[in-house]
Amino acid sequence: MTLPDGYRLRPLSADDKRAVIQLDLWAFPSGVDLETQEKLPLELPWDRFVGVVRDEPDESAVPLDGALPTTELVAMHGSYPFEHFNVPGAETRVSGLTWVGVHPAHRRRGILSAMIDHHLAQCRERGEAISALFAAEAAIYGRFGYGLAAHDVRLTIPRGAKLRPVTGSTEHSARLEELTAENHLELVDSLHREAGRRPLGVGAPHGALLNRPGWATRDTPEMRRRHLEDLPPFRGGKETRRIVVVERNGEARGYATFRREVRWEDEGPRGTVHLSEIVALDAAAAHALWSVLLDLDLTSEVATFVVAPDDAILSLLVDPRAARTKGADNVWVRLVDVPSALAQRRYAADVDVVVRVEDARLPENTGSYRVRAQAFAAPSVERTDDAADLSLDVRELAAAYLGGTTLASLALAGLVTEHTTGSLATASAAFAWPVQPVSSFIF
Ligand SMILES: CC(=O)SCCNC(=O)CCNC(=O)[C@H](O)C(C)(C)COP(=O)(O)OP(=O)(O)OC[C@H]1O[C@@H](n2cnc3c(N)ncnc32)[C@H](O)[C@@H]1OP(=O)(O)O
Predict the structure, then answer these.
(1) So what's the ipTM on this one?
(2) In order of start, what are the domains of the chain with their CATH numbers?
(3) Which one is catalytic: 7, 85, 134, 141?
(4) Which residues in the chain come in under a pLDDT of 70?
């Protein structure tokens, strides 16, 4: 789709920083003012930002004719250059769509639709077969072929909740420190990457990673630094950010970043430990971290940010009902180049299936593909004229792509059609993945 009349795309540069932040504050209302936001470094390189501008006659110019028009930035989008994004069994390059905003005075006239088409074209040019995003509002992106590929849970767990024992957990020591980029950037980055690649500490057959799909990694120095930034206006009245690091035999095995907030009530102090990110390399480290978090003085509960639906804590709680659980949509995925994306992941069971895909927005993807693979080995994916075993829209294929939403669950909603008996069962098992997808941070 092209932009409506009067609007045009324009690359953005460092000179546009103030206009970009100003527009962002129109799109996403915030209590933190323009001047403060402007001081923060942006975590995206400028060549990953695209603006939409509108040229207007300069009404204040005298005489009017011959005056240069004024140009206003009215919309923008950007994308993270993820180099090591986890897909089932492998890592790949993914474009992380972000900073999408249209000024309220220019909305609902097709600007977002045109920006999405531009973004998808850019992905193709850059050889990024997959686009991923977090949706500000969950109803926006399905129409563009994005499928809901990962869910997360947000837990509130009472202080002192009992945990089932894990061998080796008591062999950890814990360091509690103020979180700073100087002291923790490398530790956080290396543990975060390793936990995404090998959350269970083991691999899969055929050299596949038994990884956590959807796990976005902070692949540029700016992203790593921005993640640890802790400016007072963004604290929302809570304390500075802290980190607990658990070590075994002198080696860091996990960390959790958090802030405490204490309310002094008539009954006494009632504090909340607001968890930002918890990362552990094995069950013993997870147990050691939770043992610290669930026993901090003056607090009465731990509230997580996003954790995976199969996070260790859900199996460790002696009384799982003690945790209040809310579910939310996590990563949305768009397959920009269907055969390339299907070939970049691994499959959890032997499979030989012809899948018919419809893609109204990117018609070059429409067609039938034979996906053939041995469990966990590299697959072969070919376009074919053979009769389809299954058919579905590209949005549904994207929802199943990270292995967290089964093809069978989509078929329950009438979104996948089986043409060959048995193909739904085998394809559903193959497209699923042993570890649930999630991104530990919102991008
Ligand atoms: C990955 C991210 O960055 S997520 C952040 C997205 N940004 C925001 O939420 C900030 C505030 N909102 C905005 O900036 C804008 O309203 C946007 C970006 C959501 C939409 O931009 P617009 O230019 O108004 O969208 P556009 O006119 O192209 O609409 C395209 C379609 O999406 C629909 N749509 C747009 N916004 C929404 C929404 N919030 N919820 C549901 N549907 C929506 C429109 O109705 C339209 O539907 P149609 O094709 O059936 O007619």
Answers:
(1) 0.98
(2) 7-146 (3.40.630.30), 153-179+230-329 (3.40.630.30), 337-431 (3.30.1050.10)
(3) 141
(4) none
